[in-house]
Amino acid sequence: MKMVNRNKRGSQGIGTLIIFIALILVAAVAAGVLIQTASSLQSKSLDVGRQSQEKITTDIDIVQVFAYNTSNNEITGGADNLTLVVRLGSGSSPIKLDDLLIKFDTAGGSQTVTRGPGVSQSNYTVTYIINGTNHQAGYLVEGDLAQFKFTVSSTVGESESSTLRLIAKNGAVKPVDMTTPPALVKTTTYLYP
């Protein structure tokens, strides 16, 4: 009969138990890290999704652009006005007018027009032509038709190209490329469409 040393078998069992517990602890830590990372990624993806949706659904349609006092063969910087007639794009979220930038780029320079607290723009006015059913002053909502009128800062002559951009805080940039007619002889000149 062979005698088995019970102390040796017990020592092997305790060693195996310690390794098993260590593996469980490492797995628990790894699982915690994975859960935390997944939670962080989910939060970021929700933010990106919301921002993407705002960019896609926040849109302004430019209905018409025209200039006043153009019978002198140019749109005179510092004196003549440019007027935009705009409405909210289909399915778009309301746009706060204080967060809207208008950039007007010409061969003679670039002009940025905005309104809001602390911004003095005596040469920039917003008028509602039509009020939508959920009209809110200071916002462009579905059904509104608004007119933005501002004095241009640089002169635009006949047959000159210019670009007008409407930039909403949470939306896509809406560019309009325009070219003045070869003869500016009327008081009002329509530049777009």
Give structural notes.
The strands form four sheets. A five-stranded antiparallel β-sheet has the order 7-9-3-1-13, with no helix packed on it. Strand 11 and strand 12 (173-179) form a beta hairpin. With 193 residues, it is of the alpha+beta class. The chain starts with 5 loop residues before the first helix and ends with a strand. It folds into two domains: 1-57; 58-192, Immunoglobulins (Immunoglobulin-like), CATH 2.60.40.10. The mean pLDDT is 83. It is elongated. The protein has one helix at 6-57; strands at 60-68, 74-75, 81-88, 95-96, 101-106, 109-113, 124-130, 139-140, 145-151, 156-157, 161-167, 173-179, 188-192. It is built from one helix and 13 strands; from the N terminus they run H-E-E-E-E-E-E-E-E-E-E-E-E-E. Helices cover 27% and strands 36% of the residues.
CATH homologous superfamily assignment of the largest domain: Immunoglobulins
| Helix/strand order, N-terminal first | HEEEEEEEEEEEEE
- What distance separates the N and C termini? 107 Å
What is the total tally of β strands? 13
The largest beta-sheet arranges its strands as 7-9-3-1-13
SS class: alpha+beta
Shape: elongated
- Strand residue percentage: 35-45%
Radius of gyration, in angstroms, nearest whole number: 32 Å
Q: Given the structure, what is the number of helices? A: 1
Give the CATH level 1 class of the largest domain. Mainly Beta
